[in-house]
Amino acid sequence: MERNYLLLTPGPLSTSDTVRQAMMQDWCTWDKDYNEGIVTPLRRDLLEIAGLDEAKYTTVLLQGSGTYCVEATIGATVRPADRLLILANGAYGQRMARIADYYGINYSLVSLPETELVTGEVARRALEQYPDVTHLAMVHSETTTGLLNRIEEVADVIRGRGLTFIVDAMSSFAGVPIDIDALGIDFLVSSANKCVQGVPGFGFIIARRDRLMQTKGCARSLSLDIYDQWETMERGHGKWRFTSPTHVVRAFYQAMQELKAEGGIAARHRRYVENHRVLVEGMRSLGFQTLLADEAQGCIITSFLYPDAAFDFASFYEQLKARGFVIYPGKISQADTFRIGNIGDVFPDDFRRLIEAVREVLQA
Length: 364
Ligand SMILES: *Cc1c(COP(=O)(O)O)cnc(C)c1O
Prior knowledge:
This protein is α/β, with parallel strands linked by helices. It has helices spanning about 15-20, 30-50, 65-75, 90-105, 120-130, 150-160, 210-215, 225-235, 245-260, 265-285, 315-320, 350-364, and strands spanning about 5, 55-65, 85-90, 105-110, 135-140, 140, 145-150, 165-170, 185-190, 200-210, 300-305, 325, 330, 335-340.
């Protein structure tokens, strides 16, 4: 089926025809065709593409959007006697603090401006200020702006302190190489509709086994109990607790095969970097400026400043949509921006066509 438009958004994003076609069958959640044939291999594939050892890491798949998995992880890991440190520089970091508020979790929030990176230095100062924290949570790719936070530096700072390290890698996992084990990440959260290029409907948590085992009986929500979900999947060989999003899971399975066929995460990263490069070069040639300095910018999504005070985003958006491209509004308060996503089943030539479309719209 022909596409209605190309989604240049950070998820849901443009998926391949074959991923969408994979949803055209119904699956029985009790049948081993589904559990052993799709879910179990999928969980193994997730660890494999992440380069992880099954003896040390495991996965939990959970119904809902990515936020459900972030909430499930925070809600099950941070106990009443613990203290969570959140290093935030955008809406998704702030959302972690909202989750902690809902749960009545003890937390300390370091709120940076939305254009400033979370670095090792930020973590070091925060740990001096809040020496009693037991957990540290941060976002890798802050989709609010496109910043790629320095998880490697933060990992260096916290190594050996025994902290539980939680990373929201929603928009970076599978699009940016992450050495989860070397960085000592205990819980990494992502979802089906980001860089694996599946459709929306569930998220997943890649967890260190020993840390996940410690969450038994700790969740404050039945539906979001990651230990219980994990145990059911292990015991039932891929059985989900509660209704499984079967079509979405089957599409994700297909997306995973396509990720492997592309050459894995390194190859996908190279394509996204090239998408981003073509986009930024083209937009700059048309007079646009990026919100972020190049050193802080990741390859996932790019924020552009409005070119002038008279710029009408709504009209710009509609005219690009009429030419087959859907872009994203900005999400920050300090500047007028719009965003263009570089992830999904989209390629450098799509961005060359986009630049031509932007040129036409500006000239119209
Ligand atoms: C997409 C995303 C989420 C999850 O958002 P949902 O709307 O719940 O899927 C969380 N964090 C980041 C950084 C994201 O990009």
